[in-house]
Amino acid sequence: MGQPVSESTDGVLRFNVSGGSVQISFVNEKFVTAKKLRPDLAGSVLEIVLQHEHSTDNAESMKLLKNRDFIRDDVRNISVFRNIKDGIVYTFIDGRLKTTRYTFADSQLSKARL
Hints:
12% helix, 114 residues
């Protein structure tokens, strides 16, 4: 991804990529303590967020509507499809994919605990 275009005070890196941007968050000491994780996990990737600027994908084209692995939440013009087991969350605004989040799966978090 090259050099980050910015880095926040809490260590979140932002990159510009084809079709949008990427934000990468890392496990910090506070998160380790709050979730009672192994201390050696500090500094590992916590979440990757892709912001899609011009995506034409929708829930139907991604075959999410009948996929039982995803829980769907709708509020006004926003639909969120969550797969907690695999750590993937898709957000659609006005029917178009806007955000993809990759985070830890449930099983990974339980294995990371003390």
